[in-house]
Amino acid sequence: MMFEIWEGAVKATHHFLSQDDILSIGIQVKEYLANATFFVVTDHFNNLFGFMGMTENKIDSLFIHPQYFGKGAGKFLIQHAVSLHDKLFVDVNEDNNQAKVFYEKMGFKVFERTELDDEGRPFPILKMEL
């Protein structure tokens, strides 16, 4: 289910990625999902619809099913992260304006920009901190 949430969110917000990019990145995501620990959000029927993964005070992933966009789940996860750490970091694809605006609304500010993502792909990254 987590992969489907990731894939739905990416298709809804990462318009700069080709279908081949999504398939390629999806292989890495499946490995990540199998080996990481997450905070999750569920509906009142206990159906999973969002998750956040962290390494110490860095948000590694935060994905919400598109059906639940704008309903407070992402904010809830960020507030939980804030309750755990005084300072937070997150990397955002520069071309994912929806994510950039969301994190700015949560109080994050850009402190660095890179031309390439962590895998060396030509997707600029905004490094943000709260």
Describe this structure in words.
The protein has 130 residues and is an alpha+beta fold. It has one domain: Gcn5-related N-acetyltransferase (GNAT) (Aminopeptidase, 3-Layer(aba) Sandwich), CATH 3.40.630.30. 38% of the residues lie in helices and 28% in strands. It is built from 4 helices and 6 strands. A 6-stranded mixed sheet has the order 1-2-3-4-6-5. The longest helix is centred in the N-terminal third of the chain and has 17 residues.
What is the structure about, briefly put?
With 130 residues, the chain is an alpha+beta fold. The protein has helices at 2-13, 19-35, 73-84, 97-105; strands spanning 38-42, 48-55, 58-64, 89-93, 109-114, 125-129.
Annotated CATH architecture: 3-Layer(aba) Sandwich
Which ranges are low-confidence, i.e. pLDDT below 50, for 5 or more consecutive residues? none
Please identify which CATH superfamily we are dealing with. Answer: Gcn5-related N-acetyltransferase (GNAT)
Number of structurally distinct domains:
1
CATH class term: Alpha Beta
| N-to-C span | 30 Å
Strand arrangement in the largest pleated sheet? 1-2-3-4-6-5
The major pleated sheet works out as: 6 strands, mixed
Q: What's the helix count?
A: 4
State which percent range the strand residues make up: 25-35%
Average pLDDT level: 94
Overall structural class, as computed from helix and strand content, comes to alpha+beta
CATH topology: Aminopeptidase
Gyration radius (Cα, Å) is: 14 Å
Query: What share of residues is helical?
Result: 25-40%
Task: Find the count of extended strands (DSSP E, 2+ residues).
Answer: 6
